From TrEMBL:
InterPro entries assigned: Bact_2-comp_sensor_kinase (IPR050640), HATPase_C_sf (IPR036890), Sig_transdc_His_kin_internal (IPR010559)
Top-level taxon of origin: Bacteria
Bilayer-crossing regions: 12-34, 46-66, 78-98, 129-148
Gene Ontology terms: cellular component: membrane
Molecular function in Gene Ontology: phosphorelay sensor kinase activity
Record's keyword terms, sorted: Kinase, Membrane, Transferase, Transmembrane, Transmembrane helix
Gene3D superfamilies the record matches: Histidine kinase-like ATPase, C-terminal domain
Protein name: Histidine kinase
Domain Signal transduction histidine kinase internal region residue range list: 169-246
UniProt-listed Pfam families: His_kinase (PF06580)
Length: 360
């Protein structure tokens, strides 16, 4: 936080110094060169210089804060060029209108040619070119500033994503695919070897695939949606080995048809939350899991019965952390491309999660 605050303060100082320099150029340097000849500049001249400063400030921040982020950075290059040209025309005519409003040409004529009558004539081209150059410089500097700020923001997000990926990897290896799940599954497989060798072999194969996915796919930034779906299926199948007849499980998972990519192990926290908090050894419980794929959009939802948790248990201390971390991952990986809702439905005594994810 202190670093961010110091950078923000430094940015404000740089902006203020930049505009002070512009004011010195427009309000002091050029007028001083005329004052050396003992020319008393009219009030209209100063009004025009102040007007130029105000308009250039407006152009600078409008371009940096609105036009560049919403047009240029969205890839609409030709539209951006058109806006810049329209802005140049509006800037030119705004200056012309303001000069006429304050009678700038007449006032300047009386200073430089006091013995001649004032006759309106064509505009002074070099003066117009200088003003348009000021507009161009303002556009160029503000565009550069906006691009640098975007690059800095992307770099900060990239670093944060890298930290998040490492933290996520460690937390999943340590907690999400935790030793309890691993050893319980091995014990269930061991029990199956005395009852059904084929089922035991299938369960062992599923566990092997899951651990391979955790160790290798989770190292990557993205993985195939089909692999993520296979991981989900294996996880559910292994969790079903622990169920009794009191657990009613409703599952609908689509098979991805295209080669969409998704962040690995993005959906697991929602599933783990279901099985951790939605199963009771004494009461009947229901778990509903649905995953639909429509084009590049994934619709995922879970519902589970709510059972009270022992406040002294590790689950109570970790409750909600996985969902918060996943929500953060979604905001970093898929900004403006996801909708996530989760909470309690008190009327049905259920906890629900609804996720809509655009993978395009």
């Amino acid at each position: 936080m202190p670093t961010i605050t110091s950078r923000k303060n430094l940015s404000i100082v740089v902006h203020v110094l930049g505009w002070i320099m512009l004011c010195i150029v427009l309000l002091l340097l050029s007028p001083l060169s005329w004052r050396m000849g003992e020319i008393e500049l009219p009030l209209a001249f100063w009004w025009k210089q102040v007007f130029l400063v105000v308009v250039l400030v407006a152009v600078f921040y409008s371009n940096a804060q609105l036009i560049v982020p919403n047009i240029l950075l969205k890839g609409k290059n030709y539209l951006y060029i058109m806006w810049v040209l329209i802005g140049a025309v509006l800037f030119y005519f705004a200056v012309v209108y303001f000069e006429q409003l304050i009678q700038y040409p007449r006032a300047m004529h009386q200073v430089f040619n006091p013995n001649k009558p004032f006759v309106p004539h064509k505009r002074w081209l070099p003066g117009d070119v200088f003003q348009l150059l000021l507009y161009t410089v303002s556009i160029g500097l503000s565009t550069s500033l906006a691009l640098v700020q975007k690059w800095q923001k992307d770099e900060v997000n990239r670093q944060e994503l890298e930290k998040q990926r490492i933290n996520t990897e460690l937390s999943y290896l340590k907690a999400q695919i935790n030793p309890h799940f691993f050893f319980n599954t091995l014990n269930n497989i061991y029990s199956l070897t005395n009852l059904d060798i084929k089922k035991a072999q299938e369960a062992l194969l599923k566990l092997s695939r899951m651990m391979r996915y955790v160790l290798y796919e989770n190292q990557k930034e993205t993985t195939l949606l089909s692999k993520e779906v296979d991981f989900i299926r294996d996880y559910i199948e292994l969790m079903k080995m622990r169920f009794t007849e009191k657990v009613k499980l409703s599952i609908h998972i689509d098979e991805p048809k295209n080669n969409q990519s998704i962040a690995p192990m993005l959906i697991l926290p929602f599933l783990e939350n279901c099985f951790k908090h939605g199963i009771s050894s004494q009461k009947e419980s229901e778990i509903h899991i649905k995953l639909e794929v429509m084009g590049d959009t994934v619709f995922f939802e879970t519902k589970n019965t709510i059972f009270p948790i022992n406040p002294d248990s590790p689950e109570a201390k970790e409750s909600g952390i996985g969902l918060v971390n996943t929500q953060r991952r979604l905001s970093l990986l898929y900004p403006e491309k996801h909708k996530l809702k989760f909470g309690k439905d008190e009327s049905k005594n259920q906890y629900y999660v609804n996720l809509t994810l655009n993978l395009s």
